[in-house]
């Protein structure tokens, strides 16, 4: 197939597809960062939110019909999508449609991932897609879904599961599969205690990324069957996929084949589901050559763009110099006579004089007072850090007020500082 024919093939498939992003999860391992927001709404990378990555992947892949299923504390997520994702043109049947849990089928909230799709089955049918792409809303990665869809069609699959190799030690948090030489899935186990390694790679297993493609009519049939099964927990990984594997054509798709712009030659996919993982993934962006390329003009990450002035650095005295080294500083920030090192500052952060910020992630609208010292800290949105505060140096002392992880990262929220704010974040 020529490149032109290949592009037409991909374009035809994506036009006949609809994506459903499951964005209702709490993400409790992120502790207080998800007390007032769903995990997909957590800020990431200086100006984005986590859900911007699967949404951008859809748009960049040519999939312009997108539903977002919400449930847990979804107001900030809904507001972000309304402000940042209204540019698709309904005249061309392009949309991002919000699908809050609303007991459309029965008087229950979403009981599992499969049930979340089942409860919106009438909406999916109304759009009459040929293929349905099911996505999680809580991972950071860049992927060309058109290649995943083309792989699904070329193999005449009923269902395709995107997969990635992970260490055996991490398998307990994922669905793990085995495949034959044609990449047909031969077994699937959710969070197995004793996973089967990849042949020839004893330290690796093949893990599901929570990204699925279905033929639409097949999906609807299987959702109804699963709904009628009383013993089912109505979850793709626990119930639906293990049921389908021995009975239907379920194939695996290697993420390596559709990952976009691999800076290090290794596919980038992060579950930033813990405080330590979130801190590490954000600070990775400050490196000289980060694993995730946000400067890729061919595959941009779209988001809500506030109209903000450029970052500003003021004062140049020996003891009072506004500067940021090996850091990312977003619009609206003012670094006033302080030093920021190896840190990531989101929008509208003010750092007042004689302060030092190192190896830290500062979320939007934070005001850091004078003579503050922060190291290995995450500061949540809207915090006002009082003058003279020190955090990240003495974990025993920090634990009296803040949350400190096993790896020594300190999380600070307005509630920990006894500051009252509006809880839409």
Automatic annotation (TrEMBL):
Q: Cite the binding residues for alpha-D-glucose 1-phosphate.
A: 110, 175, 190-191, 208
- Specify the superkingdom: Bacteria
Q: Site Could play a key role in the communication between the regulatory and the substrate sites: give positions.
A: 71, 109
InterPro entries, alphabetized: ADP-Glc_PPase (IPR011831), ADP_Glu_pyroP_CS (IPR005836), GlgC_bac (IPR023049), GlmU/GlgC-like_hexapep (IPR056818), NTP_transferase_dom (IPR005835), Nucleotide-diphossugar_trans (IPR029044), Trimer_LpxA-like_sf (IPR011004)
One GO BP annotation here?
glycogen biosynthetic process
Top EC group: transferase
Domain Glucose-1-phosphate adenylyltransferase/Bifunctional protein GlmU-like C-terminal hexapeptide: residue ranges:
309-412
**Molecular-function GO term, any one:** glucose-1-phosphate adenylyltransferase activity
Q: Does the keyword Cell inner membrane apply?
A: no
Q: Which reaction does it catalyse?
A: alpha-D-glucose 1-phosphate + ATP + H(+) = ADP-alpha-D-glucose + diphosphate
Q: For this protein, what is the EC number?
A: 2.7.7.27
Annotated pathway? Glycan biosynthesis; glycogen biosynthesis
Q: Which UniProt keywords apply?
A: ATP-binding, Carbohydrate metabolism, Glycogen biosynthesis, Glycogen metabolism, Nucleotide-binding, Nucleotidyltransferase, Transferase
Q: Where is the Nucleotidyl transferase domain?
A: 19-286
Q: What function is annotated for this protein?
A: Involved in the biosynthesis of ADP-glucose, a building block required for the elongation reactions to produce glycogen. Catalyzes the reaction between ATP and alpha-D-glucose 1-phosphate (G1P) to produce pyrophosphate and ADP-Glc.
What's the subunit arrangement here? Answer: Homotetramer.
Query: Known PANTHER family for this protein?
Result: GLUCOSE-1-PHOSPHATE ADENYLYLTRANSFERASE, GLUCOSE-1-PHOSPHATE ADENYLYLTRANSFERASE-RELATED
Q: Which family does it belong to?
A: Belongs to the bacterial/plant glucose-1-phosphate adenylyltransferase family.
Q: What is this protein called?
A: Glucose-1-phosphate adenylyltransferase
Gene name for this UniProt entry: glgC
């Amino acid at each position: 197939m020529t490149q032109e024919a290949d592009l037409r093939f991909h374009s035809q498939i994506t036009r006949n597809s609809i994506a459903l992003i499951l964005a209702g999860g709490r993400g409790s391992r992120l502790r207080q960062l998800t007390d007032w927001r769903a995990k997909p709404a957590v800020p990431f990378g200086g100006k984005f939110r986590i859900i911007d990555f699967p949404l951008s992947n859809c748009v960049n892949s040519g999939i312009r019909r997108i539903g977002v299923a919400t449930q847990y504390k979804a107001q900030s997520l809904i507001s972000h999508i309304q402000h940042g994702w209204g540019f698709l043109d309904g005249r061309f049947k392009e949309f991002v449609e919000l699908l809050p849990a609303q007991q459309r089928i029965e008087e229950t909230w979403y009981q599992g991932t499969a049930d979340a799709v089942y409860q919106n089955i009438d909406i999916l049918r109304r759009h009459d897609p040929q293929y349905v792409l099911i996505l999680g809303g809580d991972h950071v990665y860049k992927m060309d879904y058109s290649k995943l869809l083309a792989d699904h069609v070329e193999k005449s699959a009923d269902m395709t599961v995107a997969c990635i190799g992970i260490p055996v030690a991490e398998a307990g948090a994922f669905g793990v599969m085995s495949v034959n030489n044609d990449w047909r899935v031969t077994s699937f186990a959710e969070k197995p205690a004793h996973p089967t390694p990849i042949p020839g790679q004893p330290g690796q297993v093949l893990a599901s990324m929570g990204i699925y493609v279905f033929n639409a009519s097949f999906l609807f049939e299987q959702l109804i069957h699963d709904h009628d099964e009383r013993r089912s927990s109505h979850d793709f990984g626990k119930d639906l996929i293990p049921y389908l594997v021995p009975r239907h054509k379920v194939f695996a798709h290697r993420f390596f084949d559709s990952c976009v712009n691999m800076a290090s030659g290794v596919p980038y996919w992060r579950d930033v589901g813990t405080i330590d993982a979130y801190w590490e993934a954000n600070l990775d962006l400050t490196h000289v050559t980060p694993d995730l390329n946000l400067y890729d003009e061919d595959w941009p990450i779209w988001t809500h763009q506030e109209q903000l002035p450029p970052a500003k650095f003021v004062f140049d005295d020996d003891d009072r110099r506004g500067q940021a080294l090996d850091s990312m500083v977003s619009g609206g920030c003012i670094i006033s006579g302080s030093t920021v090192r190896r840190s990531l500052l989101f929008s509208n952060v003010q750092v007042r004089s004689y302060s030092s910020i190192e190896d830290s992630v500062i979320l939007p609208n934070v005001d850091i007072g004078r003579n503050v010292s922060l190291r290995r800290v995450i500061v949540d949105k809207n915090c006002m850090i009082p003058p003279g505060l020190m955090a990240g140096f003495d974990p025993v002392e920090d634990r009296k007020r803040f949350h400190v992880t096993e790896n020594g990262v300190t999380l600070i929220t307005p509630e920990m500082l006894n500051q009252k704010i509006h809880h839409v974040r």
